[in-house]
Fold these 4 entries.
Entry 1:
Amino acid sequence: MDNHLMIGAAVMFGLIAIAAARDLLQRLRAKQKLVPVRIRPTQPAVRDERNR
């Protein structure tokens, strides 16, 4: 096979892969939803002065 033809085919496949990856990432970003996370209040941490 001719080297120029192989390089051209590789470039074309690379461009197709880049376009497909961009489209896939855009679709995944569109599906993301922010979910609220509930945080329970905790007791203030007691500092242990003996371990200093």
Entry 2:
Amino acid sequence: MQRVTKRSGVSRRSLIAGLAACMPLLATSAAHSQSHLATPVLPGAPDARPATVTVSGGAIQVDGQPFAVRGVAGDGPLAVLPGLGATTVRSYGEDPGPLLDEAGKLGLKVIAGLWVGQPRQGADYTDPAFRTRQLAELEAVVTKYREHPALLMWGIGNEVEVELADGSAVWPEIEDVAAMVARVDPAHPPLAVLAETGTDKVEKLRKAAPSIRVLGLNSYGDALPSVVERARRQGWEGPIIITELGALGQWQAAHAPWGAPFEPSSTQKAIQLRRYLPALEEQGAGAIVFLWGQKQEVTPSWHSLLLPDGVWLEAAEAMAQAWGGQPPGGNQAPRIASLRVAGDPSAPFAAWAADEEGAFTLDAVEPDGDLMEVRWFVMAESVDRGVGGDPEQVPKLFPDAVRQSGPSGARVSDLKPGAYRVFVELRDGKGAGATANMPFEVR
């Protein structure tokens, strides 16, 4: 998916134990592989120099040493990432200079995105002038940043093939850009990013773009455990990086009768990531978690790993456990056991008449015993649904709809008929938070 704008408290020990039982232990192989990573040299050090990145079978090496791609995509603060065990940050197509500088100071490597225009957004690959101009612009970027010490590889495009009945026009363009990268910067391999494997997309890319050395795949939810195997079945033998991954895509979720998809809580998302990340590591695939930042896509929280003020969610703990790191200060994020309809705890959504009110109950815990700040709010259900993650308008906020609220629930009223969501955000005052929401309808 195209995921970002381009260019331009009381402790309940039994509850904690129950939640912990749902969280698989870190795979042994992941812990073992951490010790084999190349030691980063910070760009400010006297011996900082451009790295030589090579592909050896299905593995990536930096200056001859194995390198595990573990990281994030997004524009959130980077300082916490090395402590989580992350090694890499991915960009999409904006000027990579500031990111390279910031990441390099932290010892992180960057997959620098080269934005290849998408036909569904107006890119015309039957126009030679457009192709020539785009290639020249991308070559200028590669030439400018090819010697940056933080550069890992070049990420060519992002789901350029999405929404195309016939993608034959885009494969030659990806090859042209990859061949240019190989010529201008042979020290950093080109990677192409596809939206999942499809039935034959990997095979088509492999045959039409032989200059691509690393395969990037955006994959979500329960498609993740099998994505590497599916790519191998289509003949891909080189390194594979899951260039976007998350607990669940909105297109995979169950829906309310009026079409609103059910978003997992931050705790549910973290539980899933504790499954997916070790599984990918065992298969030798790199992992880029989406999105290190905050972004409206169906909701402001669906793919966001951070709250708007930079507070990190439990997903960061899942990343640290998989990658041999620790969350900041060893802090643990609040856990949300459930957000339910009061009086009907099995209901997946709520509905009431306009002259009535709705009530919701919250069951949450702070594992470290910190006092939690709880915020409730109501937003309209999103009607601006972008394709492939295109930018969306943030739905209207109804600040007066929450009449009563607290750490165990909220009451909502005084809304016109329509579709809405109630959100709850928790903060522990030490940089960590949690979030959940539920769709409801006023009739």
Entry 3:
Amino acid sequence: MRVKRYVLPVGLMAMAAIAAFGPFHNRDTADAKGVSDKVNHIVETVAGDTKTAVFAGGCFWSEEAPFEKLDGVVSVITGYTGGHTNDPTYEKVSTGTTGHLEAIQVRYDPKRISYNQLLQVFWRNTDPTDAEGQFADRGNEYRSVIFYNGEEQQTAAKASKSELSAQVKFEQPLVTKILPASAFYPAEDVHQDFYRTHPADYKYNDVASGREAFLKRVWGDDQEVKGMESPFSRMNKDERLKSLTKLQFAVTQQDQDEPPFQNAYWNNTEEGIYVDIVSGEPLFSSKDQFDAGTGWASFTRPLEPDSVDYREVGGFYSDEIQVRSHYADSFLGHVFEDGPAPTGLRYCTNSASLRFIPKDELAKSGYEKYVKLF
């Protein structure tokens, strides 16, 4: 019995029902893979010199969250890999007949986080002794596997597994397989960023499956990999929100767009960087700003590849890709593929989501690393 299918949250089931209601809704599962491809293309365009890592560790909802928050991780996509069909879906993979596993694809900047650090996060969020599934999720699709890209990752994965085995943290031998990476298929839209879009259901799934209790018992205070936390993740968001104006709150928290040509930065020509109005995390640079003629601040790329997240939003006439700050989850605006070189992208951004820091104030404001840009 595949427990996950029986404990699928009511909210998720309702969302799926709404998505199937009619042809007007563009976020149904049939279109989700195409939308994910669009996001993948955008991420690859702005990511620069990044690499990918693929891990399978049971329910991909729970595997995605620990990697999303890591400094140096550009994106995490849930999906299916390791199978023998070309069109896996959640329903097909759940039958256990396609050979696919639920997995995550992690795109990361090797200059900021190492593959070995990613391996440490993987081990701390799976049961490597279970060959038949993970926790309450049973079946081939829930096995734990490290899919390596190239000899370097293969060597690192084997060494990491040997080191963990020598620590004798587990009573049973480690059975996690280390296999070459194969085609990766993004999961349906409803399964992306599940921990953000359905926090209560995500937490319930972690607790009910036994995953949370197991990991706490095995790893205790050592479950969190040290030295990766960003200072922007420690903000008190509730307190920060109290200082926002009515417009800033409506934009960042309620996904509202401000009026064009009537905002602070649509025609700003001063040099400096833009940070999130809530958390202060750096988002854009004036060096990448251009006049798109729309009346909103426009940029060709984010300041740091992992400073923004993307969320697919379906409308009656088209699919749009929202841009949101990574730690505060503030709504910033949208990204379009009609911008100038070098990226061909246009990040159409609300000034109400941003705070501008002139180049002469960067050092005293805590953003000294960006002084060299100017």
Entry 4:
Amino acid sequence: MGRLPADPPASSSLSLHTLDNDDLPPPYTDEPEFPAAPAPQPAFQPLRLSDSAYHVPGAKSFTVCDARIVTYAPQLSNNSDELFRVIRRQMRLPLRPLLGVQGTHTESSNDGKKKTSNNVTDFSFQLDLAETMLRGWDEPLTLNWMETGVLKDGDEQKAFRGGILRSRRYKPRAARAKAISLDDSDAALLESEADVFEGEDSENAGLSEQEADLQMWCKRFCSDLAPVKSFTLHRELRGFDFKPMRNILASHIRSLNYQGTTNFWFKKGYSSVTIYSPHWINQLRTNKFVWWAVVLLQLWIITWPIIWLMEKRYEVARSQWNASLDPGSGSGLIKCYAQGHDETQLGEFWAPAVKQAAWSRRRGSDALLTRQDAERLKGMSNEQILRIQTCESEAERQRRERVHSGQGGFMDGVVGLVRGVSEASQDYRLGMGWGANT
């Protein structure tokens, strides 16, 4: 009887994709081949983050540049199950760290009577760093890169637990009235709360301990009869210092012979989600026109104390996203990063996209660079980065093909001449400098 062929050896490591037969390495080799060291790039490529993933029922239109997501949906203030589903989903999504880059210069003019100067913006855009410095929203095991927390009864942490001030324990309004009639005893408080949430343990049988605590707070919020109330989820960022990255990018922009002023700023998009009760006070307090009217007319002296006294705040849930973990000195461990590279290497990874965006004078409210923009320019030379078009049309690609194949017509030559003049002007700009004050 012939011997059956042996099964192929099992892979010793997990793979993010299935290998074809042609891709499998040989079973044995005398001299193993070591791949060349790759250029600085993310060690892990997470799933894409889209604004639609952050959708909250009833929320107004929002963009990644917004720090808060706000909604007044009535079902989120009355239906604890719906509120629980929304907050649990939002806790798994990261905040969006944004690094803004802006270049400006001053243009002065003198008409003989008056000297004027105008501040001109040469470029202004932002980098969405979430996918290149954070991880954990698409992994079952986050390895401490993402941590969530929900307050528990008896944890002695000061927080907004349904009152106007931070407190160390929850005091329901019904329980408070009953407790007063029984000489304000702690036993009465606990007994009343048990009556309100009777049967809660059986409902939480399929939930984790943290999810059960979150569901408990959602029930407390929805059962609160206060007309003005809010439930807020906070997202935090730890372990990231944007200054080394700023210095790297500033150096690359200067290599373009840019002579203007370069400014950087760092902010956090989607850093909180707030559910307001659909009361007219809550809707007016977040209206920009009303807010400015209150400030300019000095009405805040009256309105803000009223809101402070009326609002019952619930800020019991948070998620923390760690860009790096530092075990501290003396532990024998080194600092590690979520994406395998520090802030300096992150700056080098983004440098080609930043140089191309600055050179093409990219600006506007939609000037947001993503991980795909950085990966698209990875490995290109400096000349290729500066000459590439931000969005080359299909007609231009066809014209280039006709010219290269020798089938180009008269108009193709004219268009090529115009483009050649444009490229020559860009070379002049690179050699002589641009963005200087005049």
